């Protein structure tokens, strides 16, 4: 079985603060993909990143950065200098062959950025 | 990226009626489509997976007779909520995947904008 845990249900920050979202996953597969999605109030899922299990390099895209630590089964996401438009629910997800190549979502973390 | 549309974006219906939600892949052929349900302040839960031309595979606990899924073509899948009740009120999201590589793990999955169903 595979599982994704996002321990933080809600984070509230003031604009320009950095915010880090935690994601811990479980899978028996050695080959898998990890994802982060953003779900703004409109409801539509916005794809942010995909990372495969063999690529542990951290990635930075603008104000977003991701830290993949295979040793701790974590794939954390940091928003630097947060903005009000970053307010949304963020989901971490896992896809592995053993689970039928289906996406398993974490519970989500609601980020509220106050002006 | 590829575009997936859903129609309607929202629907309100009376208890006992049936509601059909359409999911279309606009610029690609979807070999596989997924239907998710999301209750307020909760995560997305996979309801079923459907491949074009074959019966859908439902996740444990999802009633196949209540949530009818038809994937008649490579660009269209429909979800029909039969005899809807207030507890079926939810946000339904479809997702489509198409073959881009011989390694199916690499196939991208794209999400529709969702349909908000309210059953009175």
Summarize this structure as a short list of keywords or feature phrases.
heterodimer, A: 115 residues, mainly beta, six-stranded mixed beta sheet, four-stranded antiparallel beta sheet, B: 120 residues, seven-stranded mixed beta sheet, 0% helix, globular
Give the topology:
The complex is a heterodimer of chains A (115) and B (120).
Chain A: E1 3-5, E2 10-14, E3 19-21, E4 24-26, E5 32-39, E6 46-52, E7 59-61, E8 64-69, E9 74-79, E10 88-96, E11 103-105, E12 109-114
Parallel strand pairs in A: 2-12
Antiparallel strand pairs in A: 1-4, 3-9, 5-6, 5-10, 7-8, 8-9, 10-11, 10-12
Chain B: E1 4-7, E2 10-13, E3 19-25, E4 32-38, E5 44-51, E6 57-58, E7 67-73, E8 76-81, E9 90-97, E10 109-111, E11 115-119
Parallel strand pairs in B: 2-11
Antiparallel strand pairs in B: 1-3, 3-8, 4-5, 4-9, 5-6, 7-8, 9-10, 9-11
Structural write-up:
The complex is a heterodimer of chains A (115) and B (120). By secondary structure, chain A is an all-beta fold. Chain A contains no helices and twelve strands. Chain A has strands spanning 3-5, 10-14, 19-21, 24-26, 32-39, 46-52, 59-61, 64-69, 74-79, 88-96, 103-105, 109-114. In chain A, strands 2, 5, 6, 10, 11 and 12 form a six-stranded mixed sheet that branches. A four-stranded antiparallel sheet of chain A has the order 3-9-8-7, with no helix packed on it. Chain A has a two-stranded antiparallel ribbon with strand order 1-4. Chain B is mostly beta strands and 120 residues long. In chain B, the strands form two sheets. In chain B, strands 2, 4, 5, 6, 9, 10 and 11 form a seven-stranded mixed sheet that branches. The mean pLDDT of chain B is 90. At the A-B interface, loops of A face strand 5, strand 9 and strand 10 of B.
